[in-house]
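Researcher: I've been going back and forth with a colleague about how RNA polymerase II subunit Rpb5a C-terminal domain might be arranged in three dimensions. Neither of us has a model we trust, so I'd like an independent prediction. The organism is Giardia duodenalis assemblage B, in case that matters for your notes. Sequence below.
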Amino acid sequence: MTRVYGTAESFKVRRTVVEMLIDRGYMVQSDDISPWSAEMLLGQTFQDFEAEFHTAPFSWKILGTHKLRKSNANSLNQETIKVRPVPVIDKELIDKLRVETQNKETRPLDRIIYVIYGREGKKLDSPNKTIQARIDEAQRVNGIIIEHFLVTRLLINITRHVLVPKHVLLSEMEKSVVLKEYRCTEGQIPIIESSDPMARYLGLLPNDVVRISRPSETVGIYTTFRICH
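Model: Here is an independent structure prediction for RNA polymerase II subunit Rpb5a C-terminal domain. You can compare it with whatever you and your colleague have in mind.
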């Protein structure tokens, strides 16, 4: 029997989404006529959230903008991301997204995250092969990054768990410094799979490098690096 998610689950998911985008370096706001800041979204009580979304728990939308990742000393890249709860990822959804983003000069976003709330009970995080092929084509042709999470993956923020070490995505400049300092190549850095929960949380792309810091009784903080594969 398919479970119907309500405002309690939606409230938790939206909080995790906002925290995730903040951790990725975005300026976050609600994507509507009267946008709320990240602080206002995180500060909203469940009672107020329920009063606003009780008829349609997953009708909220999140917008993230002005993510600045330094590729070098004189270059700053801006990226726009949107989060959309959807019951399922299907052909119509991806085709509509492709139309909206086909013009790279005027498209409204660079990355989109779909929160899937209508597939409870199915263990697979990925759409079927046909839909995945359309997603891959949209990413290749339109140059947009498409991510998707099941509701069950966002009910809690995994980074807040005491056993999860701190992961920080390095900029291209920081990655170059690490490679030079340790006298190694990208191929010599241990791998973090793109399917790893922390890689998905941070939205890692191939060849992105993260710094992982763990508490250590002997050295205080033990630091390692992983490259996304």
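Researcher: What would you highlight for our discussion?
Model: I'd start with this: The two ends are 36 Å apart (CA to CA). After that, consider the following. DSSP finds seven helices and eleven strands in the chain.
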